[in-house]
Amino acid sequence: MTAHLYQDWIQQWDCELQAEGRKILLPQDNFSGHIVPPNLQSIRVENFEPNLTAHVQPKDQGIIRCFKAHYRAKFIQRAVDRYDNTYENLRHQSVAGNANGRQGME
To answer: Which residues make beta-bridge pairs with 24?
Structure first.
């Protein structure tokens, strides 16, 4: 989420809450994209202390760990595949170059 999307969303929600005559407290993590607009009337935003998200949302920690593990595995596999493809291309070029070189010498 970008700061712009967040601000659009929270301002729209604030307008809806104002129309309903409601006021709320919104606790949130200290993600850099969570820039709170100064003109909110019905939403009071409080940020968690740094590195507290894992304690407040323990399931996120497992989800993030699984995501990172899958990402790393895919990243490494892609790197290996690219290396293999480059090696194969160089080997084929070398073989083709040797064949062409022999034809010219005959």
So the answer is: 43
Length reported for the chain: 106
Contact 18, 41 (CB under 8 A): yes
**Tokens standing for residue 100:** 């062409």
Provide the 10 A C-beta neighbour count for residue 10. 19
Angular region, 40: left φ>0, alpha ψ -120 to 50, beta rest: beta
Per-domain residue ranges of the chain: 1-53, 57-106
Residue 106 has pLDDT above 80, yes or no: no
Are 74 and 45 spatial neighbours (Cβ–Cβ below 8 Å)?
no
Element (H, E) at 104: helix 58-105
- Of 15 and 52, which is predicted with more confidence? 15
